[in-house]
Amino acid sequence: MDTKTKILNAAELLFADKGFTGTSLREITSIAEVNLAAVNYHFGSKKELIKALMKRYLDELSPSLVASLEAVIKEPKQPTLEEVFTLFVEPLLSLNKLRENGTSNFLQLLGHSYTDSQGFLRWYITSNYPGIISNFTAAVQKAYPELSSEEIFWRLHFTMGTAVFTMSSTEALIDIASNDFNLQLSVADVIKRIIPYVAAGVGAPIPR
Amino acid sequence: MDTKTKILNAAELLFADKGFTGTSLREITSIAEVNLAAVNYHFGSKKELIKALMKRYLDELSPSLVASLEAVIKEPKQPTLEEVFTLFVEPLLSLNKLRENGTSNFLQLLGHSYTDSQGFLRWYITSNYPGIISNFTAAVQKAYPELSSEEIFWRLHFTMGTAVFTMSSTEALIDIASNDFNLQLSVADVIKRIIPYVAAGVGAPIPR
DNA sequence: TGTCATTTTAAACGTGTGTTTGATAATTAA
DNA sequence: TTAATTATCAAACACACGTTTAAAATGACA
User: Fold this and answer.
1) Strand D: which bases are under 7 Å from protein Cβ?
2) Model-level pTM?
3) What would the pLDDT profile of A41-53 be if each residue is shown by its tens digit?
4) Do B205 and A183 touch (CB under 8 A)?
């Protein structure tokens, strides 16, 4: 395995666990078993490493996700909101075939990218992968045409919050579920539990 | 104003904006216009400062919140979920009378406490203010008795995620709403928009 | 006024951070 | 094989961090 990949893999693990600010390059290069200077040599800076890490996942995720969203949009039949949200499950879970714990690592990274580092990553993502957002909005619009684009804007942000927050604390949640309810849960279980919730939230009656 | 309060106020501002890890004691004491050593003299450490900061809000919030939740629980009539969630609005907004931007600052702090600093604050909160959680759970149980305690556990966590995430990006959201939809929104508006969403999410039909 | 405890202060401590350097090693191309 | 490019390495850089120290200032009380 080449140095670049070794760094990315180690960074993924640590960043997902402890956030971007909470992880040092020395920890990363130590676990990756490469020289400290290798990060700056191969990626330029810590910031660029973070971007490269997200790119590795988003380039994998975006095409299949956008394709399935576009399919639903072009289809004559009107989808349910549950169907729209379920489109995310398979692409997300397929990340597990890429790398061990790929799904949860990616989702946790996504979570950190919204709270760490004053949102520079959020900007990077939304400006580099606009297809996901626009097609997602269109699909929701089709499933619930009475929703104004303002309402959709808000509800999709709430949904993002639900997903991102849940995923950045997945480990804790799975732990609690194991202790308090004697349930052995996986990331897939958590994802499937979210769908009815967010579908109902986005599908809430239009107020007033 | 005494030094302790000056520190707390400055810390609140900076922590809410940039997180606990992302804010240094030097920034805090500089904005508070006190000596660097004052934090360690008055609070002992950065960690204790963070706890004191959350305590200032939670001690203000907890009594009225717990009281109104208990009132709903003891009442003979069954509440709607919207009614239960609306109980949070007034206590939260009353924080604005305490300090400018009190509501959004507190909610952003809450958000950071779930992602920063490997969750030591989450532990502190849940173990020092258990009344909020248990009464909230009971109120939801009463509004939707068919929900198992497992389902409530999950859905309340999703709800927490929605609220916390939304609030940690309130500024950005208000900005976007102003640019894209020409809407001038306040924190109160955002809170009120969340309620139908989370009420519908928690009230979603029980799957399978 | 003088004494004592409390508070503030400037300076330093030790450690950890991201990044840069210049030499050495490994790989590739001619 | 030689020359040129690419990669690795140990070491140092400059800076920022939370915390500690010991002296100076302040305030309360006798």
Assistant:
1) 7-12, 16-22
2) 0.86
3) 999 999 999 999 9
4) no
